[in-house]
Amino acid sequence: MIRNHNKYFKLISLTLMALIAVFISPSLFAHGVDDATERFITTNLGIAFIPYLYIGAKHMITGYDHILFLNGVIFFLYRGKDVIIYVSLFTLGHSITLFLGVGAMLHVNPYLIDAIIGFSIIYKGFDNLNGFKRLWGFQPNTKIAVLVFGLFHGFGLATKLLQFEFDQQGMLVNLLAFNIGVEIGQFLALILVLIMLHIWRRHESFLRFSAATNTALMAAGFLFVMYQLTGYYTVS
Asked: What does pTM read for this prediction?
């Protein structure tokens, strides 16, 4: 019975690593806007609050780069207060640049901005491994880093929308709906991850596999960066 119990929790402890491994699959690098969503964005006229709410939530749930970064952010956060603070900083960052990017029509090369988002994943995995203190003897301000990377993640969201020509009438309301949807999707994804982490942290396998999990996180970020830079040099 004990042996089966240990196997069960070992399986749970490896779940996040398995998810990260799935995200490394090249077929998932092209996470973007599906054909139906593209048709809606380009043909819709006026305010469409609920559809844009759905599009935002769907994009965040399927936006594995954003979710991987947030997984790294909350990986070693044990108090609910800290989770709220860091997630709020990330939300503030990507909300600012989402509205700024779309409102001012700031076209940023999607490959470069996505490469920076990939780098944010590498950064957080390295930070979780205590890499800065081990190699250079200092610890960057994590709150500032999360806010700054949130700004880049917001530009990433903006570039996805700016790839399409959409009706300017009702844009502010639709953009607000999209951003609310992003937060809903983010909340649902984080709830699942927090439940998994809560279960995992109660067992010794958490510390045993935490280094391997964050190494896998860095590997996923590295492959994502390489993929985006390859696209930049071959397509742009």
From this structure: 0.84
